[in-house]
Specification:
The complex is a heterotrimer of chains A (492), B (471) and C (99).
Chain A: E1 9-19, E2 56-57, H1 58-70, E3 74-75, E4 81-84, E5 94-97, E6 104-110, E7 116-126, E8 130-135, E9 143-149, E10 156-162, H2 169-186, E11 198-207, E12 217-222, H3 225-244, E13 253-257, E14 262-267, E15 278-279, H4 290-298, H5 304-314, H6 322-331, H7 335-343, H8 348-359, H9 370-381, H10 387-400, H11 404-410, H12 418-431, H13 433-440, H14 445-458, H15 464-479, H16 483-489
Helix pairs in contact in A: 1-4, 2-3, 5-6, 6-8, 7-8, 7-9, 9-10, 12-14, 13-14, 14-15
Chain B: H1 4-12, H2 18-36, E1 39-42, H3 44-59, E2 71-75, H4 102-109, E3 113-118, H5 152-159, E4 165-170, H6 176-182, E5 185-188, E6 208-213, H7 216-226, E7 256-260, H8 269-284, E8 288-292, H9 300-315, H10 333-344, H11 347-360, H12 366-387, E9 392-396, H13 412-416, H14 423-428, E10 432-439, E11 445-451, H15 457-470
Parallel strand pairs in B: 2-3, 2-4, 7-8, 7-9
Antiparallel strand pairs in B: 1-3, 4-6, 5-6, 5-10, 9-11, 10-11
Helix pairs in contact in B: 2-3, 9-11, 9-12
Chain C: H1 6-15, H2 22-38, H3 40-43, E1 63-64, H4 74-79, E2 84-85, E3 88-92
Antiparallel strand pairs in C: 2-3
Classes of the chains: A alpha+beta (492), B alpha/beta (471), C mainly alpha (99).
Chain lengths: 492, 471, 99
């Protein structure tokens, strides 16, 4: 690379660890649960007590295979290795993982913008315990002791390693967002980054466009999309500046400091740690048969990209701003609210908008009954409820789960009886003869006058469209010469 | 001395009680163990309570099982709930596991009465029990001599008549070699036949638990009790184990026996002669004995001393002072790990950890550990080839009779060389039995070794029984 | 002769969290070198066509159903711990993140 050339291409590869939604841990029957009292979900195996042995969880394998299938990987026979290093949160001081024979290889992930990112591998491994640092700052530096909870030790993880195919911080974020959606869709992960279910390590380097790969730095343990994007942005710029000034990038591991808004060196050693991988003698090779692999692939539910496409197909004009709404509906797993409504004739544009905006804002929206919501949307579509009224009834529906028609009635939103509207119209027309005369003669503005009167008289319950129709009908029969009646009513 | 089979029959039949047998065992321990030091821990109260439970069952008309009332000794690398488990290391001094090894539960379920935990080379690393962190065990035949190792305590306890049955573990010969040195029967089962759950791991792909007993039949009964699939051990064989007790009296008529040159070459003359006499005894009983050379077996020693320490270096990493056992405090956790392990581990353990770490390390894996795994394939194939036309292989168990305490401690390599005949079976994972057969000119026991393919225990026991009768 | 040096032994000792005195370093280097010399017969073989055997019998792994089993009682777990604080295992300060 020429000194002084400002490398402007960012290259990012991501390693995403997801905890698997199994009932029990990877190698023992302890519960896989977040938030329990420390050291209550442990046994000789996950504590690594002398003499303990691992036994592989079938469901963890199934979920790992589902992830592989969803990412278009080759799901193949695999084996386990020990990754040896000392750390207090590791009960055995080695981690059982997969090394050169991982269960899933060679997949791909297509981003909404069309970018395709290669998936090199997705393998199984066990999680570590959690340590909290006690003493001065609560951070690891300055603590004088640490406290370790092994509840999380042995929880199943799948580590998904991408090829260095991403070219921006935004792209990295989009990749993780899409991957998260896929992992949640397969049922393998709950995607809760705030609970640590999903963790990201980013490998970032820069180079002159078209040039060879630059030295990369690894930023470990990013736990939100926002910090991922900010960290990658910062790191790319840091490296770029460094190179532009004639310096060299040192291959190292860095940590993202959220408060400072910068990455900082974690380890100054340039050599990679020697993990001394060797085949795990306590576990035999894993070889899921074709029948199992086929079953897993066949049972995969539709992935977010396919679901977005399906919703977009319902909209008359797919290239609308409702693309964001569709993405939001799928991301929040609320598709069925749209499809139930559209299957009952509600226009997709209305359904998508209401689900993406109003329904999504409700906590626990996913638990609502889709038929009830569809009924509500039908009422709005038919004009029986205004948009404002529909939103209010939706809130009631979320609180009570009752039939929206009943809820509308309780709020006083129900439609006036046809007969009652007719009687009222006749009465109002009699009370306002001069306005009626002008309307009959063709002054359309007076229809709004009468609509206003009707609304005041009915406290807004009347359907505006029905009032206008009723006025127009009376005008035409008036003109057709119910003449003596008309003559009677016409002012002298 | 009453055998386990006889004793169990007497207890079940109401002729004697488990309590009286246990009291006798405890008395024997009290009288003799001062000189022998087979035991690291004796649980008299627990043993008597267990014995009483057995007697209550008998009184109730229920069958306590095939080892009813039989006092047993457990090598101290087997986890027990009510007795400490130290692996003869200071790093686990006083540690009492919150769970028991599967084999222990199975013994107890069969009516056996665990009397105590026996001495071993620290973490099962050694061939003399001199590497114990709690002092050596002495050979009951001659207390200036080693009992062998690493299961020296269990072998000595049986040889001294303290208990009829002991459990040991065998990674490179650690049941068979002490059995030979102490003049008792020692069995290394097919890998996976006996669950390793609760066995403090030394080398996971080589370790197996097995019985030590004064008779072939007792060893067979014990093996039947402890063998069988265990869902807690992923390497445990899934198929039901073969019956061995029924096979003990099958004899060897028509059996093809191979006397393996590489399992005899280099042994003392006494030992070689004992093996030749054993061959003759098998022939007299109807077997055909031929000489056979299996040169690949010579590579076994080196491969073993790369594989075993490598796995051990990883298995012993967990002893870091964090969760149990010894802790030597320090300013930071790494310093604490170092101080704890440096103080808690003995020399041989440290040597093997470092050797194993080296053999696995970047740049050396292929030449050492990786290569050793290939040699393992060679050894397995060589045995398979031999078993194509042979049923059983015969050889020495050890090159010498029991050596003197201190004779080999200065030179680790000299100690390792005493495993040369036993190691190949651990590498291939196949079964082998050491059977007492005569004595050396020094009057010390000699054990000959019978080897067979995987799951061939029945024919090995049958051959062992023939030799036992002829000895 | 194997190329095992004093520096090699010092390096693996550190990796294995063992501290050696100078005397021990010398002694162990000598002893380990002897063992590795012996292992040269293995290292020197051309075994390219021979696959490695990691497990004696190449069956495929057993799988366990995803069903809860009883855990250990926390009091029992912590009773054996060298130091406990807040129901957690207490260790002296950790310097640096995991490698």
């Amino acid at each position: 690379m020429t000194t002084g050339a400002h490398p402007d291409e960012t290259v990012v590869g991501l390693e995403v660890h997801t905890e698997l939604r199994t009932v029990t841990k990877l190698f023992c029957g302890c519960p896989n649960r977040f938030g329990d009292a420390p050291n209550t979900n442990v046994c000789p195996v996950c504590l690594g007590l002398p003499g303990s042995l691992p036994v592989l969880n079938r469901q963890a394998v199934e979920l790992a295979m589902a992830i592989g299938a969803a990412l278009g990987c080759e799901v193949r026979p695999s084996s386990f290795h020990r990754k040896n290093y000392f750390y207090p949160d590791m009960p055995k001081d080695y981690q059982i993982s997969q090394y050169d024979e991982p269960i899933n290889v060679n997949g791909r992930l297509a981003l909404p913008d069309g970018t395709v990112v290669g998936i090199e591998r997705a393998h199984l491994e066990e999680d570590t315990g959690k340590s909290t640092h006690v003493g001065s700052s609560g951070r690891i530096h300055g603590a004088d002791r640490s406290l370790v909870d092994y509840n999380r030790a042995g929880v199943p993880l799948v580590e998904i390693v991408s090829a260095p195919d991403l070219r921006s911080a935004a792209g990295a974020r989009a990749y993780v967002a899409e991957l998260r959606g896929i992992l949640v869709a397969t049922g393998a992960s709950d995607g809760r980054m705030e609970e640590g279910s999903l963790r990201i390590d980013a490998n970032v380097s820069v180079r002159a466009a078209g040039g060879p790969l630059g030295t990369r730095c690894e930023i470990k343990n990013l736990n939100s999309l926002r910090s991922l994007q900010r960290a990658v942005e910062f790191e790319a710029e840091r490296q770029s500046q460094l190179l532009a000034e004639g310096g060299t990038v040192v291959q190292e591991t860095r940590h993202w400091d959220e408060n400072a808004g910068s990455t900082v060196t974690m380890r100054s050693k340039e050599e990679a740690y020697d993990y001394r991988y060797f085949p795990e003698p306590d576990l035999l090779p894993l070889a899921p048969d074709d029948a199992w692999r086929d079953r897993v692939a066949a049972a995969l539910p539709p992935m977010p990209a396919a679901r977005r496409a399906a919703l977009l197909a319902l909209l008359d004009d797919p290239a609308t701003s409702q693309g964001d709404q569709v993405a939001s509906v799928v991301d929040l797993d609320l598709d069925r609210f749209v499809t139930t409504a559209t299957s009952r004739g509600v226009p997709a544009s209305l359904a998508v908008a209401r689900v993406a905006n109003e329904l999504a804002a409700i906590e626990g929206a996913g638990d609502l009954d889709a038929d009830n919501v569809a009924t509500l949307l039908e009422l709005e579509d038919r004009g029986e409820l205004s948009a404002t009224q529909a939103k209010a009834v939706l809130a009631d529906l979320a609180a009570t789960g009752e039939d929206p028609r009943e809820l509308a009635r309780r709020r006083g939103y129900e439609r006036l009886e046809v007969g009652a509207l007719d009687a009222l119209l006749d009465e109002l027309i009699a009370q306002h003869p001069s306005e009626w005369a002008r309307y009959v003669e063709g002054d359309e503005r007076l229809s709004q006058f009468f609509v206003g009167l009707v609304m005041r008289a009915t406290s807004g319950k009347a359907d505006g469209k029905a009032v206008v129709a009723g006025l127009a009908a009376r005008r035409s029969t008036w003109s057709e010469g119910l003449g003596d009646l008309g003559a009677q009513r016409r002012p002298d | 001395m009453t055998t386990a089979v006889e004793l169990a029959a007497e207890v079940r039949g109401g002729v004697t009680t488990a309590r009286s047998a246990t009291e006798a065992a405890l008395r024997a321990v009290a009288e003799q163990d001062g000189a022998v030091h087979a035991f690291l821990h004796v649980d008299a109260d627990g043993a008597l309570r267990a014995a009483d439970r057995v007697d209550a069952m008998v009184a109730d008309g229920r069958d306590p099982g095939p080892l009813a009332g039989v006092p047993v000794a457990l090598k101290d690398n087997l986890c027990t709930r009510d007795m400490p488990t130290t692996a003869a290391s200071r790093i686990l001094e006083g540690w009492t596991p919150p769970y028991a090894a599967t084999v222990v539960d199975r013994l107890v379920a069969a009516g056996a009465v665990p009397v105590g935990k026996t001495n071993l080379d620290e973490f099962a690393m050694g061939s003399s029990t001199e590497n114990s962190g709690y002092g050596p065990t002495r050979n009951p035949h001659d207390t200036t001599r080693v009992p062998g190792g690493s299961s020296g305590g269990s072998a000595a306890a049986v040889a001294a008549g303290m208990v009829p049955i002991g459990l040991g573990s065998d990674t490179g010969g650690s049941i068979r070699q002490p059995a030979a040195f102490c003049g008792v029967v020692g069995v290394k089962p097919t890998y996976g036949m006996v669950s390793r759950y609760g066995l403090i791991a030394f080398a996971s792909s080589l370790d197996q638990i097995g019985p030590l007993a004064s008779t072939v039949e007792d060893a067979a009964v014990c093996l039947e009790v402890i063998a069988g699939h265990d869902p807690m051990d992923s390497t445990s064989l899934r198929e039901a184990p073969p019956s061995v007790v029924a096979a003990v009296d099958d004899g060897v008529d028509g059996r093809r026996v191979g006397l393996v040159r590489e399992l005899v070459d280099g042994a003392d003359r006494d030992v070689v002669e004992a093996v030749e006499r054993a061959a003759a005894a098998l022939e007299a009983a109807g077997a055909t004995v031929v000489e056979r050379s299996v040169p690949e077996l010579r590579l076994g020693l080196s491969a073993y001393y790369l594989i075993a320490p490598s796995e051990a270096s990883s298995n012993l990493a967990r002893y870091d002072g964090v969760r149990y056992g010894l802790r030597v405090d320090a300013e930071d956790v790494t310093a604490m790990n170092v101080a704890t392990r440096t103080k808690g581990f003995g020399d041989e353990v440290k040597r093997r950890i470092m050797l194993g770490t080296y053999a696995l390390s970047a740049g050396y894996y292929d030449a050492y550990y990786g290569q050793a795994l290939r040699v393992r394939t060679l050894v397995a194939r060589a045995f398979a080839s031999a078993y194509a036309d042979l049923d059983v292989l015969l050889g020495a168990t050890t090159p010498t009779t029991a050596f003197a305490l201190g004779a080999k401690t200065a030179d680790p390599m000299a100690m390792y060389l005493s495993d040369v005949f036993t190691i190949p079976s651990n590498l291939s994972g196949e079964a082998a039995i050491a059977v007492p057969f005569g004595a050396g000119a020094d009057g010390l026991p000699i054990g000959v070794q019978l080897l067979g393919p995987a799951r061939a225990e029945p024919r090995l026991f049958a051959a062992a029984r023939v030799l036992e009768a002829a000895a | 002769m194997s190329a095992l040096t004093r520096a090699d032994v010092a390096h693996v000792a550190a990796l294995a969290r063992l501290a050696l005195s100078d005397e021990e370093l010398d002694r162990y280097t000598g002893q380990l070198a002897v063992v590795l010399d012996h292992a040269q017969d293995v290292a020197a073989l051309d075994l390219e066509g021979t696959p490695p055997t990691a497990h004696p019998f190449a069956e495929h792994t057993v799988l366990r159903e995803d069903v809860e089993a009883p855990c250990l009682d926390r009091d029992v777990v912590l009773a054996q711990a060298p130091a406990v604080e807040d129901d957690r295992f207490c260790v002296p300060r950790i310097i640096g993140e995991a490698p």
